[in-house]
Write a structure and sequence with these properties.
5-stranded antiparallel sheet; globular; single chain; Peptide Deformylase; binds nickel (II) ion
């Protein structure tokens, strides 16, 4: 497995819509495994393929707390078949928007169809953090970030700060030493 570089916002690659996986084969399993390794190393609880520059509909999540055994999920072509009317709010973060969090409201429960790592069709119902996490990562596959689901004012503040952090880092890197 290999750890991959995570694309940081603002970046046009994070706005791209991803194409479906034709078949979960060895190549896709490799991407899934590399994504899990990258997510655990960050550490994070979810990662979508476009965040590592792969524009295919693949996500990985693990909602287990640090003191619980890992519960990794690897999903290709996830589709939401049903979402509850009941909503829940989580303070969300994202590996592509480091050090920024915001409350986001989403359906509390979802039923999801996807291909697992053996290319088998699975249908699962998720609630709690897992439901939120799956929806957050699925958004990435359509070029949507959690900041697109909060007010334009808050979104602007976060994206400007990220752009400024990047500029400062680039300037520091340019200083000869
Ligand atoms: Ni994210």
């Amino acid at each position: 497995m290999a750890k991959l570089d995570v694309i940081i916002a603002p970046d046009p690659r994070l706005k791209r819509a991803c194409k479906p996986v034709v078949r979960v084969d060895a190549r896709v399993r490799r991407i899934m495994d590399d994504m899990l390794e990258t997510m655990y190393a960050a550490p994070g609880i979810g990662l979508a393929a476009p965040q590592v520059g792969v524009f295919e509909r693949v996500i990985v999540v693990d909602p287990a707390r640090a003191d619980e055994p890992p519960r990794p999920w690897q999903l290709a072509n996830p589709v939401i078949l049903w979402a509850s009317d009941e909503m829940s709010i989580y303070n969300e973060g994202c590996l592509s928007l480091p050090n920024h969090w915001a409350d986001v409201e989403r359906p509390a429960r979802v039923r999801v169809r996807y291909l697992d790592r053996d290319n088998e069709i699975r249908i699962t119902e998720a609630d709690g953090l897992l439901a939120t996490c799956i929806q957050h990562e699925m958004d990435h596959l359509d070029g949507v970030l959690f900041v697109d689901r909060i007010s334009a004012l808050k979104r602007g503040i976060i994206l400007r700060r990220l752009a400024k952090t990047r500029k400062t880092a680039a300037e520091k890197a340019a200083v000869p030493h």
